[in-house]
Amino acid sequence: MLQVRSGSLQVLLWQRALDPDKGRWALPGGRLGPTEDVEGSIRRQLAEKVDVRQLTHVEQLAVFSAPDRVPGERVVATAFLGLVPCDVDPVLPEDTAWHSVAGLPESAFDHAAIVERARDRLRAKLSYTNLGFALAGREFTVSTLRELYSAALGYRVSATNLQRVLSRRGLLEPTGSTAPPGPSGGRPAALFRFAARGLQVTDPFAVFRPPPADRPARAARWP
Amino acid sequence: MLQVRSGSLQVLLWQRALDPDKGRWALPGGRLGPTEDVEGSIRRQLAEKVDVRQLTHVEQLAVFSAPDRVPGERVVATAFLGLVPCDVDPVLPEDTAWHSVAGLPESAFDHAAIVERARDRLRAKLSYTNLGFALAGREFTVSTLRELYSAALGYRVSATNLQRVLSRRGLLEPTGSTAPPGPSGGRPAALFRFAARGLQVTDPFAVFRPPPADRPARAARWP
DNA sequence: CGGGTTTTCGCCTTAGAAGCGAAAACAGGG
DNA sequence: CCCTGTTTTCGCTTCTAAGGCGAAAACCCG
Questions:
Q1: Helix axes A142-153, A111-128, angle to 10 degrees
Q2: By the CB < 8 Å criterion, does A76 face chain B?
Q3: Residue A66: how many CA atoms within 13 Å on its side-chain side?
Q4: Mind giving me the DSSP string for B29-67?
Q5: How many secondary structure helices (H) and strands (E) does chain B include?
Q6: B128-145: pLDDT as tens digits
Q7: How far is B11 from chain A (nearest CA, A)?
Q8: What is the mean pLDDT of chain B?
Q9: Cβ(A35)–Cβ(A44) under 8 Å?
Q10: Tally of CA atoms within 13 A in the half-sphere of B1 that contains its CB
Q11: Which positions fall inside the Nudix hydrolase domain (chains A, B) (predicted)?
Q12: B123 membership: H or E segment, kind and range
């Protein structure tokens, strides 16, 4: 479960109380019940940590199944990526805490690798989908959206270009109202929202493809 | 396990001899052994159908875990995408056969949905990776590569553009030799090969990103 | 050698993304 | 109330990858 907090991408971890790997930080999760699928299971497990309505996106990552990934009994895990918008701060149980994805503490089992996979997936999808909606609040300024993207991607993003690209793709729409300026003045920023709050892919795969028929064909020229 | 055969994308299926879903066509697979991971398991299962060395690419697709996806006992399946180059024709056991992905026969369980997922994944990755290497032989002409891409993608692609894009990305390199012309004459086609035979992603995710430092940077200023 | 065929190449257009500077809109102080 | 500093937004230009199109290249056959 990832969230951007105080300018960095963070992950919710839980400190193990029992062996194996007692005291180390682990991802939330648990066993699959007989009447649920894996996504239902992970949503159920996470509901013990945060309110389910705060979870704006959940998707499968991969299966981790190395025979020795957990000492003792054989455990096959299906890893998920879950996202929480930046404007909520759930009350957490005693044994859980947010940790910056860059610079994780000593983690249990192969969970560090899983977090890395989740971060990579998030970074990739931020560029070719509208997944930013899952990190941002319902309304936001371009500046705050820029900070979210910068934190999640790990490099600085131009606010100008961010707004241009997302707008051209039809993902961003203005609310009409503006946010009050900061303490040091400045022009008040316009508020935006994402046009859709479900995952939408903006076809990055239109390669090798002939243009759609609805575009007018160009007239032939003769020398 | 997918392969392009006689101009269409096909999948290797196995006809079930036992209930449930007796007589229907199913994907190859089986139970996970205690000392292997899921990829090792699927490779072992497939080795009963084709030579392992003919399998040029294997990757995880997704976990299918609906409680009722298989009648009777609970079965959680990890689906894989496997690719076989077009220049091999493995000898098959009696009960297995290739089927065109477009127009599958009545399939067992949720296997039709899995095949659809595999096809979509292949199509996507053909456009932003070098995954074509797994469908093509070691050496090929641009025309045959065009046919492979057309069959897998489901629409006609331009040989000119295909060569240009793959070359610009540095994925394609000429072998120096040429293939003999066909029965109706024509200029002999140059032979090419993929520069790498492992999966390489050609960053379709370079969005919102400032240009790399090794390019003549024009005095970048950041807010 | 000329006609038919297939491949390859060069030049141009299109589309999306990024660079850059200036205008717009606010706060605060003199 | 004007001037300065700050932040946001907009318009124009540039860059890069992909696609269109026709001509040249290189072969076969009669």
A1: 140
A2: yes
A3: 9
A4: --PPPTTS-HHHHHHHHHHTTS-GGG--EEEEEEEE--T
A5: 4, 9
A6: 999 999 999 999 999 999
A7: 23
A8: 91
A9: no
A10: 29
A11: 1-139
A12: helix B111-128
Confirm if B161 and A208 have CB atoms less than 8 A apart. yes
* DSSP code at position A188: P
A76 CB-near residues (< 8 Å, 6+ apart):
A63, A64, A65, B32, B38
Residues of A in contact with B158 (CB under 8 A): 208, 210
Is the C-alpha dihedral spanning B131, B135, B139, B143 positive or negative? negative
pLDDT at B211: 61
3-class DSSP state of A113: helix
For residues A211 and A62, what is the distance between their CA atoms, to the nearest angstrom? 34
What band does B127 get if pLDDT is binned at 50, 70 and 90? very high
Percentage of chain B modeled with pLDDT above 90: 79
- Beta strands (DSSP E) in B142-204 are 172-178, 190-194
- Considering only CB atoms, A34 lies closest to which of B34, B74, B156, namely B74
Structural tokens at position B161: 């553009």
For residue B100, list its beta bridge partners. B10
CA of A182 to C1' of C21 (A): 24
- Mean pLDDT across the stretch B8-21? 93
Show the tokens assigned to B90.
Answer: 């493995």
pLDDT digits (tens, 9 = 90+) for A47-89: 988 888 999 999 999 999 999 999 989 999 999 999 999 999 9
If you measure CA to C1', which residue is closest to nucleotide D8? A187
Q: A4 is written with which tokens?
A: 């951007």
* DSSP alpha helix (H) spans, A18-135: 38-47, 111-128
- A209 has pLDDT over 80: no
- Statement: residue B61 has pLDDT above 50: yes
Residues A188-206: pLDDT tens digits?
Answer: 999 999 999 999 998 766 7
Decide if B191 touches A, using CB distance below 8 A: no
Q: Yes or no: say if B134 and B121 are a contact pair by the CB < 8 Å rule.
A: no
In the numeric block, which tokens belong to residue A44? 């159920």
Cα–Cα distances (Å) from A79 to A117, A152, B37, B62, B184, in that order, read 9, 19, 15, 11, 55
Distance from first CA to last CA of chain B, Å, rounded? 50
**A8-39 confidence digits (pLDDT tens):** 999 999 999 988 889 999 999 999 999 999 99
Query: Would you say A10 and A115 are in contact if contact means Cβ atoms under 8 Å apart?
Result: no
Question: Using one digit for the tens of pLDDT, what is the confidence trace for A105-155?
Answer: 999 899 999 999 999 999 999 999 999 999 999 999 999 999 999 999 999
- Provide the token pair at B120: 């979509």
Inter-chain touch A60–B60, beta carbons under 8 Å: no
- Is-cis flag, bond preceding B20, omega within 30? yes
